[in-house]
User: Fold these one by one.
Assistant:
Number 1:
Amino acid sequence: MTFEDAENILRAAGFSVKRHPDASQAKDPNRAIDWYVVGAAIDPFVERLLGKVEVYVGLYPDSPGDYTIVKDVKGYFLIAQL
């Protein structure tokens, strides 16, 4: 699937999708391991009196800086209690 299609699907599902990471981050020795991943989130996904649930998705490119095809997708839920 193309990155553009994946990002459009996530936006249509209510996610806020971050911009593609800048290639200059590759030179930063303090960068995150997955600095090149495009992140998307729904925060809050569910909100209750004593907490909330957040949903996060990461779109992984075939190689850092190549945002044409999605190689992998990872997602998780975060449950935050107040």
Note: The chain has a mean pLDDT of 92.
Number 2:
Amino acid sequence: MNLLYLTFGSQIEIHYQANFSILSFLKESQQIDSITVMTDAPTFYRRLVPHVRLIVLDDKVLTEWRGPYDFLWRIKLRAISLLAEQLGEKPIVYLDSDTFLFGSAAEFKDVLRTNALMHENEGTLPSLKTKTERRMWQQIQSKSFGGVTISSKHCMWNAGVVAIPGNRNAQTVALALTLCDALCKEVVRRRLVEQLALSVALDEAYSLVAAQNWVGHYWGNKPEWNDVIARFCLGHFLKGSSFEQEIESIKSFDFHRIPLRKRRSRMHQRWVELADKLYPFRDVVHLKRS
């Protein structure tokens, strides 16, 4: 299978997340045919160059990929589309940076032969619970976008993993792009548009399976995972570890120890913000400039 990562922007966390994710797949490198990283920060991946192919993205390309309606996450669809054009009828696995392989890559690859995968099924469109999701359903139900009529049978799938079999991959991603642009044109709430476009397009073309039995996605607990991954990366940097030593280390990493998601009441954050205002830092001292 052919992995794809897309990283851009100034947050260094995105890049060490992606490095960690890549290492988690390379611990089963015999199952990986290629790894492509499309990024505007290639220096963060040079240590992996023997194992990954870098495609450098500049501001011009990223702006163009946002499309006619200037939608940020259309960039994800264009990245997948470009790789499909380059690889032809070969399976593609797009991964958000905040993912990792914990299950059997061989099993994942076997499922991908005849099915598409996204990270997890979040439910049918009418059953989704957030205000944004309910509003989106009101805007799109029974309407046709890109030749597809959105119905109550369609589901929203989490797009942290988007795995597409080799057959019909270019046509399927083209449909996702058409759906995305059509939804943006109709001024549908954008927060989940690219996720919806992929969910519908893959469901129309294939049987969809959840990837969560093989790939973890910690979108709901990034601070804790970021801390652990930063320690992992810094520890190996300070030790001067070889690539082989890092792979051995990640083979023994306990992926089950840290929650993928955890929630806290919004009141907690409000109290923290209030406490910061009531009790600001005092006696702040900087070095004096000469």
Note: The chain has one domain: 2-217.
